[in-house]
Each structure stands twice: as structure tokens, then as C-alpha cells.
């Protein structure tokens, strides 16, 4: 078998040339049969040295003792091959990492021929592997040990492959719970719905890395803010094998970040606000209408100045200089004085001074404030000055307006009362002068008529002219005040005698007596004056005013255009009046007012055509009070409206029940014409009582037609239109102008009883009666003679043409049920 032998030789050659592997044969007992160069290289023995030796030589002492060499051979024998790695010894005793294969070599019959042993020195690889293993171990430990980061791997589909302590800590899952699960469990349902898990994975797959921050969900459902990195992992061949996922819980960091962000925003906002505020303050200082100067306390140099100050003091470039360098000496002195006083006397100082400024002499109200800041060592004085010249002038004007009457420029009631108080304080009391103070109340007579007739503008001019005349009669120290309307008042301080006050009053009355010539009109007014004196009458201002007023009232009562001194009985009268007024109210309330009826007789028929209703106050204590004792007071107080209405209603009601066609005459006060409801009152009285209008007669006096009477005349017409008759009462007294008879179609004239009384002796009275009856007859107006007390009078009046008579001769006023119904036969 040359080929075999050949190939055998070839094979031997091959083996002999292999240097990296120790290849040698062992006998079945383990004796080294041959040795190749690789073996020599690996183990250090030459073939001569080793062939024939037992292979256990390569094992360590311990291994030999444990019969490892023998075991290995047994394995190779029984199993055909033994393969292992382990430390082996070289000849020089050094060890090498060997990869050992022992193959059992058998012949065709199966008999064991020996063992082929191949040993490779893998020390280097082994060491490298060891190093790598150590690396990997450490790395694994590192990864597993990292607890701040969740580090885990995903397979290509995104399922969790492994899990570190950090992952457990961050997400709450144990390794066995999560490995194999899809990583989308870490996402919130919302993010899952948005497909975020797969999007992240896609990005990592496409770009190698995905990095994001977001909300993730723990096992317990709680959320945390996280920073996530997904890295695609490739093997050595570049094949992608999965993903490394590193997740970090950055909730805390994020919180801090957010806080920082907020703090930053806040700080920015604050600083923006501060900047705005500072700009605002700058503009405040620039725009306040006050002058501002700030001076350094130590250097006395000016630190700040606004435009107003520059303008007011006509100076520029003041900052950094002394006041004395840039201001006129007197202004600099003024400012320095203010500031120095603040420094020496206190923190805040105010002053009001007249200063010669660039705008002339102005009153400056200044405030100087010392500002000391120990921290910044900045001590400065702030000087703020306001020009209050106009304000003071306006105040003075307002003050004047509040104390003076706009029309006449005279002091008004406020100032009057103030001055009266002062005057009384000066004269009365322990330190007073002891002199007399006169208080005068003045009221113009019939000023209202002038105003009504000639207009308010005229009235105003008259008041001004009149004030001047009054004023010219007084001393400088006297006060003439206009209290309102046509009321004036005078204070006469420091009088020596009571007569001096009366003389002054008399002078004033005289002064306005000559007619005033205004706008081409000549016009006369009178004035009534009431005088009260201190300390004679009283020492209190209010009381004096009240007394002067009572005296004035008395002057008016006594015929006007005169003065009266206050007397204690005036006070008494006034008091009585007040009592009477209260009593009358009670009388109205309790129905103490009754009507009495006096017959009116017609000339021809000699029968009673009607009655005049005359009011009576049936007082529970004082008895019957006649109308003249309370009607004037009722007219002054306005109670006449109620009293008159009551009288009218009573008269209508009683007359309606008489069952005859006799008339009833009711007296109307001129004051009642001031009531715009008069027509309605009459209408209502008729309607309520059912009295036929033609049975009612209303008696008015001439005064209704006086002055501004157009309105009254139209009221008369309206009354007449109701169907009632209108009589002119007391004709012949007062103004007695026959012209009145033409101004309104009266139904009757009542001739005042004074003419009837005088008729027998006085030709004039008879003439007047004659004129009236003549006029009446020609105008077809009936005439009633009043106060007929005798048969003779009646006969004479009959002869003079009177159509009716009224008087005690026929009957006195009596209650309705006592009234005379038919005339006695002998009349
Ligand atoms: P008058 O309207 O002139 O009334 C007539 C007055 O003369 C009545 O006085 C009456 O009693 C009185 N008198 C009548 N005949 C004679 C006589 O022969 N001799 C004398 N010496 N006197 C006679 P009386 O009742 O005291 O009324 C006084 C005035 O009071 C009335 O004067 C009238 O102006 C007023 N008066 C009376 N009742 C009312 C009333 O209800 N309303 C209003 N506003 N005034 C009334
Ligand atoms: Ca009458
Ligand atoms: Ca009368």
C-alpha cells in the first residue's frame, strides 16, 4: 500500500510541520508515543525528552493526585473523545491555558491503539476572554446596579428583554413581571392612543436614536416625568438586534426647572415692573405741577431737579451745582433756608411764602423732607414747592362768595351771623366794651308788587340801588347784610345810646323814600325796620335776631315804612299768636268751627232772599271767638286755606238742607286765591252738598283785584262759570276804585257798613252810597247795604236805590237752626 504508506508519510509530515498545535500520540496507557514541533513549542520539551514519558507530566501535582489524567483518558476511551480546557504545565514549570482534545484511536477491529492528543496553547485568547468576561461581568453589575436610570433592552418588536434595578425603582415592576412585555405599558393611555411608543421606536430604528421627555406611567398607575433615550443596537455584522432603553425619572429636576423658570419669569416681570415703575416715577417727577429739587446733605449740591423748578426759578443745568451758583440770590437763600431748617429742626417741614420767581411774586407752598438712608449712606433733602397763588386767590373768592350776596355784594346771612356773634362778644362779657349793639331787621314794603309789575331784572336793579342808599347811611364798622329776597339786616356795633339805633333806622327809612329812577321808570318803595338791642333785650345773637324780627312784624302791622323797637310784650303777643295757631289747628281737628247765618233782605219783596255765612270758633273755654280774632292769623300762617274750605263746606251743606231757594254767601279770603285748587274746592263743595250753584254767592274784597290780578280775575271767571255769583265785599273802603267794577262782571256790590253808619251825618258817605248804587243800577249789579241797624237807615237806603239790606235791624248772625226764616210783620 504505497499510496497509503505515502499518504501516511504525508500526514506525518503535515503533523510535523504544524507548530501552533501540539499533536502527539499516547499509548493506551498514556505514554507519549511521538511529539511534533508544535508540542515542543507548546510545552518546552524536545521529542527526546518526552517520548516515553507519561502525559500526566503536563498536569499539576494536584491534578495528578486527583487522577485527572487517568479520568480524561477513560473518557476518551469510553466516549471516543475528551475535550477540555485547563491549565497545563510546561517543562519549565510555567502554566499555559490549553485547549485539549484527546481522541481514542482504534484499528478496524475496534481495538484501542492509543490516543491522539491535540493541545493548543490558548493562553492569550483565554486571557483576552477572561478580560472580556470580567468586563462584561463588571458592566452587567454596573448596569444592574444602576438605580437612578432605568436601563433595559427591547427586542426588535419592543418587548422588554432585561431589566435593571433602576428600572424596577423607576417603574415599580419586578424583572419577572415585565420581561417579555411590550414597553408601551410604560406609556399613559393617551400617549398610547397617539401611538407614541411605536413612533419612538420607529425613530430609533430609522435614526439610531430617539430622545424625548414626557409623562410615563408606573405599575401603580402613578405618573412621573421622564427623560427617555432609545438606542438601536446592532451586532458586529451591523444587524439590528434590538434597542437599549434608558429612562430617567426627572420629575424632581423638572419641578426644579419649572420653579426656576417661574422664578426667572417672575424676576423678569419684577424687573420689567421696576423699570416701568421707575419710568413712571420719572414721568411723575417730570410732570407733577410742583417744583422738585433734591440736594445732597453733605455736599449741598443739587442731585435732581425737574422742569417745573427750572421754569419757576429760570435756571438750567442745576444738577451737580450749588443752589447759590445757579439761582438768583434771594431764591437760593429761600431754598437753602427751607433745607437748612429741615436739617436742623426735623424731618418734614412745610411753609407758605411769597417768593420772587421768574413768573413774578408767587406764593409757594413748600414741603422739605430729609431722607436719611444709613445703609446706602445717601442723605438728601427733598424740596417740593407748589405755586398756590391761584389756589389761594380762588379760595379767597370762594370764601367771599360763600359769605356775600351775589346780587348786591353785601354780606349774606352766614357772614351776618358771624359778625353779630363777634360784635356781641366784643361788647358783652367781662372784658367787653359795655357798649350797645343794635340788631336791625329790614323788610321792603310791597317789593313783591314792584317785582311782579316791572319784572325781576328791574327788581334786581332796584335792590342794588337801594342797598347803596342804605349802606351810605351807615358807619364803616356797621354791617349791612342781605338775608334774601327783600330782607336786609344791620349790625350797629359800639352804640352809646339806644336812640342812636333808632336814628340809624330813621335815616335808612328816609334814605329810600325818594323815588328810584331805573331804566326810565320812577319807582318808590318803603322799608319797615325792627330794632333789638344788646344787652338791653338779650345777649344771644339768635334771640336778638328773633326780637328784631318781632319788632319788624310790629312795624308792618302798624302801617309800614316805619321802625319799631322791640318790647317784651311783642314777645308775649308772638307767644300768644303761636298758642292761638296751635289752638286753631286743634279747633279744625275737633270741629270747633261753626257757621252763623245773617239774613239778607230784598228791597221790594221785603222777604229774606238769602243769608251771609259768618264763621265762629266755638272755643271750649274762651267761648265764641269772632272771626277778626283768628282770621288774620290764619291768613298769615296759611291755615286760612283749611279754615276757608271748612267754612265753604259747612255753609253749602247746611244751606242745601233748608228746602228753600235762598242763597248763601260765603266769604273768601284773598289768600285763598293763592291756592290753585280753589275752583276744584268750590266745585267739590257744591257736588258734596248737592247745593245748586246759583244758590251760592262768594264774597271777595277789592284786594283780590290788586297788583298782579290777571290770574285772580281768571279764577273769578272760572268760579262764575260754575254758576255761582260773585259779590264785591266791603266796597268803599281801601282803594275803592269804581274801575274795579269794570274789570269783572260782579253780581253784587256790598256797601261797607261804615258808610251806612255815617250816612245820616256825613254828606260824603251818602254821596258815595249814591255813586255806588247809581253805578250798580246802570251796570245792572245788585247792591247790598251792610250794617243796617235802624228802620230809618233802611228807608233811606231804599230811597237811594239799594236792592238788598243786611244788618242787626233784620237779624244777627245765628246758627242755622235759629236763623230768621220770615220777616216780622212790623218790618
Ligand atoms: P264781613 O264780611 O263784612 O261780615 C259782616 C260783618 O258785619 C260780620 O261780622 C257781622 O256780624 C257784622 N254785622 C252785620 N250786621 C251788623 C250791624 O248791623 N252792625 C254791626 N256793627 N255789625 C254788623 P263778623 O261775623 O264778626 O265778621 C267779621 C268779618 O270776618 C267779616 O266781615 C268777614 O270779613 C270775616 N269773616 C267772617 N266769616 C268769614 C269766613 O268764613 N271766611 C272769611 N275769609 N272771612 C270771614
Ligand atoms: Ca262779607
Ligand atoms: Ca262786608
Key descriptive features of the protein:
827 residues; alpha+beta; Beta-Lactamase; 5 domains; 8-stranded mixed β-barrel; 5-stranded antiparallel beta sheet; 29 helices; 30 strands; 43% helix; 26% strand; elongated; binds ligand C2E; binds calcium ion
Query: Which strand order spans the largest sheet, edge to edge or round the barrel?
Result: 21-22-24-25-26-27-28-29
First and last CA, distance: 211 Å
Q: Tell me the radius of gyration.
A: 69 Å
Structural class: alpha+beta
Give an account of the 3D structure.
By secondary structure, this protein is an alpha+beta fold. The protein folds into 5 domains: 126 residues, Beta-Lactamase, CATH 3.30.450; 109 residues, Beta-Lactamase, CATH 3.30.450.20; 120 residues, PAS domain (Beta-Lactamase); 163 residues, Alpha-Beta Plaits (2-Layer Sandwich); 238 residues, TIM Barrel, CATH 3.20.20.450. An 8-stranded mixed barrel has the order 21-22-24-25-26-27-28-29, surrounded by 5 helices. The protein has a 5-stranded antiparallel β-sheet with strand order 10-9-13-12-11. Strand 3 and strand 4 form a beta hairpin. Helix 17 crosses helix 18 and helix 23 packs parallel to helix 24. It is elongated, with a radius of gyration of 69 Å. Bound molecules: ligand C2E and calcium ion (2 copies). One calcium ion binds next to strand 26.
